[in-house]
């Protein structure tokens, strides 16, 4: 073959001459980056040229669309806890990142995206493939910056990683003009950044608020904990568990928080919000002290704000001061990283058991089991349900898998019923609700946690949004289990049309290709089933297959996800049917 | 619907100290536009500290909205500090320039008296026109427009508002603390921590 000999460059001495592209890649190596998801193009070619020599240090995954690249970066970040890194070219490459940036911004996912940009002298001239990437991405990034001179690269990249991963994490975009990528400069070394004058990633923990919070908790008769992703973002799972177990308080989760406490922990009383569990939603309006930990009172969780937990004193623990009082007025704001604040709080609270109160959640749970869950998870007749597919998956994975979900009914079903023994096991697009998220995110999640089984649960609508990423699976050889729950509808929209638009099914009927054939075209094994008796064996086949596998499960067409808090209702008006 | 308290909007002066960074104006403006809040006046200029800019933003809103907006602004990476104050809490000025035909001014002594009464200062006198300047609150600068209109006012322009906070010690000392604490340490801002009602920041 006519390829040139590749050398893996050692970290350069200071004062060596490097191109901007080389300096960037050295920065990534020092930052501990091992995997990059990307797609090349004219304006980022100098960086890709430099990448040719970095094979030993930096694995590059060639995706099939930049949206796939950034969702893969998100999946990687969410499963590994590290910063996801994404490359794209200028213009259309960069604009294809926007959905993923918005998704990462609202779900606080740490990303550093590098986009190529036209030569600096062409900026603002409508040059070929030029777009105002900084302007376009400003509202959907935690920070962005355009580099026009190579000497800026070490400092700016260091800032980018610091900003992406600290405080409330988020996506950062660095746009680098082509001249800066090519420009040679005297490299003065790379020093990671740990301080920016104007940036305070964590608010200062205030003892008096911890004391006030402890006092409220100690005097509460019916305290209730709501937790969100903040627990995981702060790597505070242990601290959280210690707090929960000492206080004996029942705790419920937002979908972004799922898995921070194992599903079968006795104090885990279920999911909050629109399609959450009955008990936690109703009891939100019964508790006397509500302790919100690393969650942001999203409208999908609170329903109508003017009828939300009005009877309760509210303690809100959050690293982002702008979240406190934003939606729900707090009694005690506990500013800070919950990794620091929770142990302080645990120290001051009395050890208790709220047995009778916890029992009330169990009663509601029983009610929900009788009305909804039993029929969803263990139907004895009729067509298959999404719930039983998840239930069987639970049986086989024993809660050890990472579950990546797309958006729609299957997402709500999977998040409600998936058994999760470990943190960072539930990867979903929570805040933006991005269809097309799951397949690429699952690829990224696997790269971020190579030793774990990754199962993507996707609707027949969502899979078709980023189905080209099957090509990424084929080429990278990554092992991802893909489970399509096919109800032949854009199910969640159909459910709303049924419930709130007099069954006027306007454009929700979606036909699918033969997914098994499609997978086969990409060299991926697959199977489609529509009989209950095949479910277990098909799941077994998928899980034990060496390498990726696509399983299509034909489920009942017009099933609804219940319980449900209808739009504009209070959480206590949650409907069981 | 239950009876609702009337919405109490008033003018708030938002003071933002920032790094001097390209694109930040856009980021800050977006915080308002995204919430459909109109900015009545916006001034940005270097502050007394090198490298630090000071924004003065005036909006007509409820305190609740303003405090949330202020937190969102302070969340931006390059923003060092945000304060918000009612008009009573600040000393504020706007500057206005008035261009009038010189011959009219020269001929009519009455105009000169009016100008003097209104505290106007001559900035430039040319054969064809003269430019006056006044500073003050909106009503004051508006008054002179009315006075000059009959005498052939050619052009008028008014600046954005600038405001100085009456109560605070200013940001100067605080910034020095910020800088002394560099690198990597959090600044303890106890006096503000203890007055959460007045100062929303951490
Ligand atoms: C990119 C995008 N477009 C549109 C929507 C609106 N939407 C939410 S759920 C849904 C239907 C999803 O259908 P499907 O993927 O088949 O999953 P199901 O609900 O049937 O499980 C749609 C269209 C969305 N969330 N994201």
What's this entry about, in short?
Helix content of chain A is 36%, strand content 17%. Chain A is of the alpha/beta class.
Task: Report what the structure shows.
The complex is a heterodimer of chains A (577) and B (202). Chain A is an alpha/beta fold and 577 residues long. Chain A folds into 3 domains: 16-187, Rossmann fold; 207-361, Rossmann fold (3-Layer(aba) Sandwich); 382-554, 3-Layer(aba) Sandwich (Rossmann fold). Chain A is 36% helix and 17% strand. Chain A contains 22 helices and 20 strands. In chain A, helix 1 runs parallel beside helix 7 (153-165), helix 11 packs parallel to helix 14 and helix 16 (386-397) packs parallel to helix 17 (409-417). Chain A is globular, with a radius of gyration of 24 Å. Chain A starts with 15 loop residues before the first strand and ends in a 23-residue tail after the last strand. In chain A, 56% of the residues are buried. The model of chain A has no long low-confidence stretch (mean pLDDT 96). Chain B is of the alpha+beta class. In chain B, the strands form 2 sheets. In chain B, strands 5, 6, 7, 8 and 9 form a 5-stranded antiparallel sheet that branches. Chain B has a 4-stranded antiparallel sheet with strand order 2-3-1-4, covered by helices on one side. Chain B is elongated and about 60 Å long. Mean pLDDT of chain B is 84; it is low at 182-202. The A-B interface holds A 134-135, 138-139, 142-146, 163, 194-200, 202-204, 206, 320-322, 325-326, 335 and B 18-19, 22-23, 26-27, 30, 34, 67-68, 71-72, 74-75, 77-80, 178-179, 182-186, 188-189, 193, 201-202. The complex binds thiamine diphosphate. The site of thiamine diphosphate has 20 residues of chain A, from helix 17 and helix 20.
Write the layout of secondary structure elements.
The complex is a heterodimer of chains A (577) and B (202).
Chain A: E1 16-19, H1 20-30, E2 35-38, H2 45-51, E3 59-62, H3 66-80, E4 84-88, H4 92-95, H5 98-106, E5 111-117, H6 133-137, E6 143-147, H7 153-165, E7 171-177, H8 178-182, E8 184-187, H9 207-219, E9 223-227, H10 230-233, H11 237-247, E10 251-253, E11 268-271, H12 278-284, E12 289-293, H13 299-302, E13 313-318, E14 332-335, H14 338-348, H15 355-377, H16 386-397, E15 402-405, H17 409-417, E16 426-427, H18 438-448, E17 454-459, H19 470-476, E18 481-486, H20 491-500, H21 515-521, E19 525-529, H22 535-544, E20 549-554
Parallel strand pairs in A: 2-3, 2-4, 4-5, 5-7, 6-7, 9-10, 9-12, 10-11, 12-13, 13-14, 15-16, 15-17, 17-18, 18-20, 19-20
Antiparallel strand pairs in A: 1-8
Chain B: E1 10-19, H1 24-34, E2 41-46, E3 52-61, H2 63-75, E4 79-86, E5 90-101, H3 102-107, H4 109-117, E6 121-125, E7 129-136, H5 138-148, E8 155-158, E9 162-165, H6 172-180, H7 190-193
Antiparallel strand pairs in B: 1-3, 1-4, 2-3, 5-7, 5-8, 5-9, 6-7
The complex binds thiamine diphosphate (TPP).
